[in-house]
Amino acid sequence: MVYDLIITDRADELVDNIVSYLKNKLKNPDAALRFVDELDAVYGNLEENPFRYPESQDQYLSRKGYREALLQGMSYRIVFRIDEFTIYIVGVYHDLEDYGKKIEE
Fold first, then answer.
1. What are 36-48's pLDDT values in tens digits?
2. Element (H, E) at 78
3. How far apart are CA 27 and CA 43, in angstroms?
4. d(C-alpha 20, C-alpha 29), whole Å
5. Domain for residue 17, yes or no?
6. Averaged pLDDT, 69-86
7. Which DSSP state fits 25?
8. What is the CATH number of the domain that holds 47?
9. 76 found inside a domain
10. Is the pTM of this model over 0.85?
11. What are phi and psi of 8, to 5 degrees?
């Protein structure tokens, strides 16, 4: 089964900020490219089977039905929720962020 993937404006903005940070601030275009590649891989996995990823580690988000997918080999996580056959990507965060308080309903 294929799920529809909707990336919220906020999540898209967060991705742009991360790529810009990796490329411009850290001067590491290879890390930015790897981030985008890993992000695309997870998006593909989500479209096929979003339930392969666990519920959010944040208790509040978990109660709201959010799940998380970690980017392999990187310290970033994608936060999403599933509504029937649609997946909503609501944010992409670094592991050190208190992302549970940044998710908007």
1. 999 999 999 999 9
2. strand 76-83
3. 26
4. 9
5. yes
6. 96
7. I
8. 3.30.2310.20
9. yes
10. yes
11. -65, 160
Q: Classify strands 4-7 and 66-70 as parallel, antiparallel or unpaired.
A: unpaired
52 token code pair: 């392969």
Are 79 and 92 a contacting pair, CB within 8 Å? yes
Domain count, the chain: 1
At residue 7, does pLDDT exceed 90? yes
The answer for 27, left when phi > 0, alpha when psi is -120 to 50, beta otherwise, is left
CB neighbourhood size of 94 (10 A): 13
Residue 100 within a domain: no
Q: Residue 62 class from Cβ within 10 Å (0-12 exposed, 13-18 middle, 19+ buried)?
A: middle
Report how far residue 24's alpha carbon sits from residue 20's, in angstroms, rounded to the nearest whole number: 6
Domain that residue 12 falls in: 4-95
Nearest residue to 89 (alpha-carbon basis) of 53, 60, 59: 53
Q: What is the pLDDT, as a whole number, of residue 103?
A: 80
Q: Is residue 38 part of a domain?
A: yes
Q: What would the mean pLDDT of 31-37 be, rounded to a whole number? A: 98
pLDDT of 104: 60
